[in-house]
Design goal:
Six copies of one chain form a homohexamer. Chain A has 270 residues and is of the alpha/beta class. Chain A contains twelve helices and nine strands. The first copy, chain A, is 50% helix and 14% strand. The radius of gyration of chain A is 20 Å and the shape is globular.
Amino acid sequence: MTQYSAFNLELREGIAHVQINRPEKINAMNAAFWTEIRDIFIWIEETPEVRVVVLSAVGKHFSSGIDLMYLAQVGAQLGKEVGRNARTLKRKIEELQSSFNAVDECSKPVLAAIQGYCLGGAIDLISACDMRYSTIDAQFAIKEVDMGMAADVGTLQRLPHIIGDGMMRELAYTGRTVLGDEAHRIGLVNSTFIDQEELMGGVFNIARTIAEKSPIAVQGSKEMIRYMRDHSIADGLNYIATWNSVMLQSEDLRIAMTAHMSKKQPEFKD
Amino acid sequence: MTQYSAFNLELREGIAHVQINRPEKINAMNAAFWTEIRDIFIWIEETPEVRVVVLSAVGKHFSSGIDLMYLAQVGAQLGKEVGRNARTLKRKIEELQSSFNAVDECSKPVLAAIQGYCLGGAIDLISACDMRYSTIDAQFAIKEVDMGMAADVGTLQRLPHIIGDGMMRELAYTGRTVLGDEAHRIGLVNSTFIDQEELMGGVFNIARTIAEKSPIAVQGSKEMIRYMRDHSIADGLNYIATWNSVMLQSEDLRIAMTAHMSKKQPEFKD
Amino acid sequence: MTQYSAFNLELREGIAHVQINRPEKINAMNAAFWTEIRDIFIWIEETPEVRVVVLSAVGKHFSSGIDLMYLAQVGAQLGKEVGRNARTLKRKIEELQSSFNAVDECSKPVLAAIQGYCLGGAIDLISACDMRYSTIDAQFAIKEVDMGMAADVGTLQRLPHIIGDGMMRELAYTGRTVLGDEAHRIGLVNSTFIDQEELMGGVFNIARTIAEKSPIAVQGSKEMIRYMRDHSIADGLNYIATWNSVMLQSEDLRIAMTAHMSKKQPEFKD
Amino acid sequence: MTQYSAFNLELREGIAHVQINRPEKINAMNAAFWTEIRDIFIWIEETPEVRVVVLSAVGKHFSSGIDLMYLAQVGAQLGKEVGRNARTLKRKIEELQSSFNAVDECSKPVLAAIQGYCLGGAIDLISACDMRYSTIDAQFAIKEVDMGMAADVGTLQRLPHIIGDGMMRELAYTGRTVLGDEAHRIGLVNSTFIDQEELMGGVFNIARTIAEKSPIAVQGSKEMIRYMRDHSIADGLNYIATWNSVMLQSEDLRIAMTAHMSKKQPEFKD
Amino acid sequence: MTQYSAFNLELREGIAHVQINRPEKINAMNAAFWTEIRDIFIWIEETPEVRVVVLSAVGKHFSSGIDLMYLAQVGAQLGKEVGRNARTLKRKIEELQSSFNAVDECSKPVLAAIQGYCLGGAIDLISACDMRYSTIDAQFAIKEVDMGMAADVGTLQRLPHIIGDGMMRELAYTGRTVLGDEAHRIGLVNSTFIDQEELMGGVFNIARTIAEKSPIAVQGSKEMIRYMRDHSIADGLNYIATWNSVMLQSEDLRIAMTAHMSKKQPEFKD
Amino acid sequence: MTQYSAFNLELREGIAHVQINRPEKINAMNAAFWTEIRDIFIWIEETPEVRVVVLSAVGKHFSSGIDLMYLAQVGAQLGKEVGRNARTLKRKIEELQSSFNAVDECSKPVLAAIQGYCLGGAIDLISACDMRYSTIDAQFAIKEVDMGMAADVGTLQRLPHIIGDGMMRELAYTGRTVLGDEAHRIGLVNSTFIDQEELMGGVFNIARTIAEKSPIAVQGSKEMIRYMRDHSIADGLNYIATWNSVMLQSEDLRIAMTAHMSKKQPEFKD
């Protein structure tokens, strides 16, 4: 497996464990981070053995968001012509967005396990995951507002679907910190754990449960739920009907049925 | 009133009570179920005396979902040609979807009262209702994932609007059981009751309240809320303005006003 | 500053305080209310010094909704020709809608502070605000159903994004009263306060926090969150990329950075 | 085959010939017409032997549109209560729309062959067909405007996609007559023929060509083109990719290939 | 009637004649033009006697587009801060757009009569009209490209619906001149006339025809066709069904029927 | 410049000339074709000196579409499991689509110059270009129908926007050949030329005209026209307002103005 500078990557029993690994920099997102995460998710996409992904971080904190050094480098590329600067900036933003789109568009479920700080760009990142779990003392904040800018790599687009319109606005305008408990209450995380050890144990348990299911079923469900953020009920029903018109011809249905009848645990191919 | 094999049907004081009635089969959804529910909702649509619908189930459980015998029969119709099988399957899925679309598109409010198991296809069914109420020990699970398939009669399309994106994904991928209390907390049900008797009493109270309101007002509200799942704010405002440009000329407004002035209970025509 | 008959208006330290001021009529929305609120929000839009808006009400109650006298006046304009009546009514409804659209489309955040009754049209109004806060004994009800009509100035369009589809329908069909506590639990308000004094103190604290942030950041965030109610994730990402391709060239980013480095409070231009 | 009162119906060599047959009434659309056309297209949908449909009319004229006697009957059902009248009318219009939706949604191509008058409702009808062909002296007019109403069974929705926005408006507002030649120039018909005999010969030639093609290919193409009237390029590309992921596993592709190699005419199953 | 500096305005027999009147400046669009056209269309909207609008221009040319002096004035308002300049420019562009939106959104049909030059902003203007007619020697060109900018008051949004995607791009990228004949062939104008006198006669004939129709029918048709540029077939069918559920209760239908029976010219109220 | 096996590539005076170069195989699209075209358009995107692209083909014919050998190779990758085959096929189709998406999404205009055969996949390709020009004897046909499949790399999605709904369907169902003249009449090509030499001369003239314009203006126009295929008028107007709020601050506007005043040819930076 390729070595990465900003990440650890492991694959065991169908679960890819993607770990941000720059604890000495509070896991700030530097240039390597942005390209490596895209490469990792391309690899995940192309590796049938991966059934589910856990995204966590080494150290006391999940991530402090984008690395300010990296931001400064981007700024240094700008010249005097406003129009051409805009062209350059739009491409750079689209490039960063594409890194987190790779997480969102991953056909396998991605579970985020969060402890400590989860700030700015880290909120954009976890908004692109399927589910979020945290320690009770995790600290979430949409910090972009304090940098004089609107978040532009996905928070403002994906988070309203997760926590609703009213709380979304308060958090985006004030940048205030939300602790694990409140995060749970408003739906930002699905559940909380007492400490990091419990958190990792709990998240891996959920991941294992998913890894044992039919990948045809899990990935089809993910495709449909993602699709519904942007489409009408009628379009969604048509899509699943088209999709299942082939997938119900797959052998997974038969394997599941047989296992169900014989009260055994089914085993599905990747 | 027509007799049905999978349902009981009663109409009293403006409330149609639709009861799934195959308790010996845990109210599994067989061939009769799928055609009869469509017929029942056509009848509801065409019967002005029906102002509101309560959907419940006879016995210890609400429903275990689609009947596996029925599923096997569908499977038996498939041949060897993948393309034509797909055509057959797509039509069959659309046929099943249309049964629950009849619930969703019903112009009168539909209240689901749920006890015991509510699994697989039963989740698709209650997602198509307006509101859901349950006993505290009701058990909800998106069981399709354990049959090697993605749910295809509405759960993945309608439930995200009810419980939000984050919890939606966990339940769809893991198929885990949610009890009444958690169902209430995540918005899957609007409230819970201590047992089935309380449940039925409580749901019929709400139904009676609605049945006394102006049907012009209630049905107009339902049309608008349904419309908003799929349309922009601007489109929704235009739609209600067009709608009310005629409905405000209806006599219900005058009846309500007069009753309000004289502090009497208004009586509205069907 | 212009004098208004239905409102008090103040601007202090970047916060515009818009107060409904017809306490003797339970702040019912009369003809003056509907035109003045539009004028006030045009002024807010055109006044760069306004960074954030607090919308509250004088007296024991927030508002009882539309003034029935005003409704009667509108009714008096109708003739016998159904088609031309419809044309008249559609224009009138669109006119009322445009009053609350002015609140929704305001580029600066609007915080509603609610005590006592918040009924009918008042729910339409607070649904058009960014965030809602209330006393614990505030009483919310979608009263339109009791007037024989579907709400037509925004509740049915905007509220589902705030409280979810399931509870939305119950409140719209039954018109039942929700108290502060439940309002908090279902997301209708972001938090509750023990009494009106605490409420106003709490809301102004949040408003002050927002007023100190970069208006480029706050207003950009609002534009994006509003946009997401009606657009796809992909469209939203493209919009923020286009938007930030110019806004990241603004000086606010540099001011924020400099302040961050020197650990000082940044000061942004309007 | 069922007998119809307003239509002749024939099936020969994969081509269903649907002929409006009330020449003594200029093929005006009466009650029987509206229900029978729906029944006919349900039969077409369920009959795999039908590969393509020709829709023509007996006599000198294609159709004068809706039968005024029928319209009068509908009017007679209205009472005094404006709101409930509106409910009745909306259902009736939706019923008529559903008759032509059955044409539009038919999975097999429908070719209209038009001579003489094609007025009012007849324009709604041919707008729901795939292609239109006419004699050079055919006369087209959107006559609804002369009846004091906007066309409501599909002309205003489907025709802009066929003739463009500019000419659409002129024809809808003025109700002026377009002859075959101009109809060809503006894209309303695909080609014109010198007289009715040539027309029928020409249209059946095109129908035969289509009937010999793979139904998997033809019906897939129709599904995609219909879908594109309402969806984005990206959605359309995703849909065809999902669709073809199963259809390319069908045997038609292999049959076509083999025939291509051996320079023979391929034969496809229905 | 109000006097305008950039326009002549007349109302005769239901036809409002709006004439651009700055022939000495080739009818260039100055500050007065942009505000007056909005005022004129508000007046048209509120004046029931206006049934149809003819938009023409005094002198040898229709219009050379935006006045460069006006553009220079706008430029003079910009400062050094790129972000706040962008805010100013966005508002200014939206203000100009709203002037032509008033034409597009006008509930009555607007017919443009074009001679000589029709350049830049003038193309934006005629794209917002319902139909376009010209002399054979009229000259059309999307001149914005030669000013180093993309057209931003409507050409790029509305014209593709009129002339199709392929020709649209050629004209936008090259800025080349299209003469009357080609304009007719590609659908940019509905017909051409030999000279200005014939043009005005022909356009007023069409306008008179429309003015005699039922305004309920004409305005309903316009609303529906406008709606279809942006909505699905299903949404459009639902909208006309809702709309006509009231409009078919209007007396215009009865007046048209009676006139039809008695072979007289119907007379409709405004 | 990189060497390609299926293409020639040249850049002269701002015009990239992309030539399909497999004349001995009638320019059939083999594996190399599909990956190289994507690489070429990435290079075009990243090379500011390219202002406009001409896409043509070496030899007597433009292209016969996808290479059947390549298709056979894809088929050879399929196994027995229908569901996993579908997954493989969907990814392959998406990969091919992404090759032509690169043409469609290219920020610079792409002009296709077509002679001889333009069949099957070649129609998908030219549908993704901005404009099309051909010799009078060019032959266009949607050949996919004769291979037992629906076109799946863009024809069915993009061509309706170019030639309208009615003719689109005839060509897709029959696969019939359209010659240059008819192609011009229905809008498939913008103009025709007497032979290949004239064609190349004519297309390069248009390309040169575009290359001399401001790239800010041309690329902005393209972005807006592309956007309008999928978005509402209101969304389009908002997008251009946001876009131009920065682009009008670019120096191109000033350069164009100055040149206009001094009657000189402006010179724009890339």
